[in-house]
Design a protein that fits this description.
303 residues, mainly beta, Porin, 18-stranded antiparallel barrel, 18 strands
């Protein structure tokens, strides 16, 4: 299983800091919430053609008892994520939203009773300017052109760290500057990440990853839009390997289409063979990696 969220098994949490910042965040007003509703792939909800209507994932059912259940609020935004890796072992993440339908707090609890909270705080433009949990306390600073974002604070319990991200006109990260390396990203015309290049700080290429996609709707796309930069920091800070693909589709739901392969330096490392339902949404996925094959089913909410 991939890393999902940076919650820590510590019981000493930052609850008071989060609560005080929640009160502070009430002074920040989001001017527009239209872009934050679950508009999966820009589909028109009034379209009479069912192949164009968005679908919400109810379950991902994987091998060896692995199961993920998803529940949504009245705005079709992901509210409860319950993941089981084997009988009696797993975790649950509940998302609270603010009045502008941006995620406000993630509440986490696992089968061992460990709990944590991750709070998100927004500026007048609806951008995250700070987030924190038991491991992290990060501040984001945006330049006037919104094409560079600086971040600093505590990451993975390491204090006084800093980095930056460069954004393209569509708001996608094209360069991520970390502590001992930097990453560059390329995208296709649909906005899918098609390349991730890892360099050391002497500009030597360490790894080149590339990704291929189908042309079908990714059912996970369109959730947690406001947290795109937060999730990018979570997953690419101190990056060492690909940990945002495959099972548990809401880990990084920012590619409009479904990934079909991962290549490292031009060599295929992972293949995803996808079977679709009558609406051209993924229904059965077989992941082939290192000579092994793993299958999981996607079950959708039906009205």
């Amino acid at each position: 299983m991939k890393e999902t969220f940076n919650f820590t098994p510590k019981l000493m949490m930052n609850t008071m800091r989060i609560l005080s910042l929640i009160f502070l965040s009430l002074f920040f007003i989001q001017c527009s919430s239209d872009d934050n509703s679950n508009n999966n792939n820009n589909n028109d909800p009034n379209d009479p053609n069912p192949t164009n209507l968005p679908k919400l994932v109810a379950f991902e059912v994987g091998p060896n008892g692995t199961n993920v259940q998803y529940e949504y609020n009245d705005n079709d935004l992901l509210e409860v994520w319950t993941e089981t890796t084997q009988p009696g072992v797993g975790f649950e993440i509940t998302t609270a939203y603010n009045d502008e339908l941006n995620p406000n707090v993630w509440y986490y609890v696992d089968s061992e009773g460990v709990s944590d909270q991750k709070g998100f705080f927004y500026d007048f433009q609806g951008r995250v300017f700070r987030y924190l949990d038991a491991q992290d306390d990060v501040t984001l600073v945006y330049d006037n052109d919104n094409d560079t974002v600086l971040f600093e604070g505590i990451i993975d319990e390491v204090a006084d760290v800093s980095g930056s991200m460069t954004l393209n006109a569509g708001g996608k990260v094209t360069r991520f500057n970390g502590p001992n390396q930097y990453l560059t990203f390329d995208y296709d015309t649909s906005g899918n990440m098609i390349a991730l290049n890892q360099y050391d700080n002497n500009d030597n290429l360490i790894n080149n990853y590339s990704f291929t996609y189908d042309n079908k709707n990714n059912p996970f796309y369109g959730q947690f839009d406001a947290l795109y930069l937060v999730r990018t920091i979570d997953l690419f800070w101190d990056f060492s390997n690909i940990n945002f693909t495959g099972f548990s589709g809401y880990v990084y739901p920012y590619n409009p289409n479904n990934m079909t392969a991962i290549l490292l330096d031009g060599i295929t490392m992972v293949n995803y063979l996808i079977g679709y339902d009558n609406d051209d949404y993924p229904a059965v996925i077989s992941e082939a990696v290192s000579g092994n094959s793993y299958q999981w089913d996607i079950i959708y909410i039906t009205e």
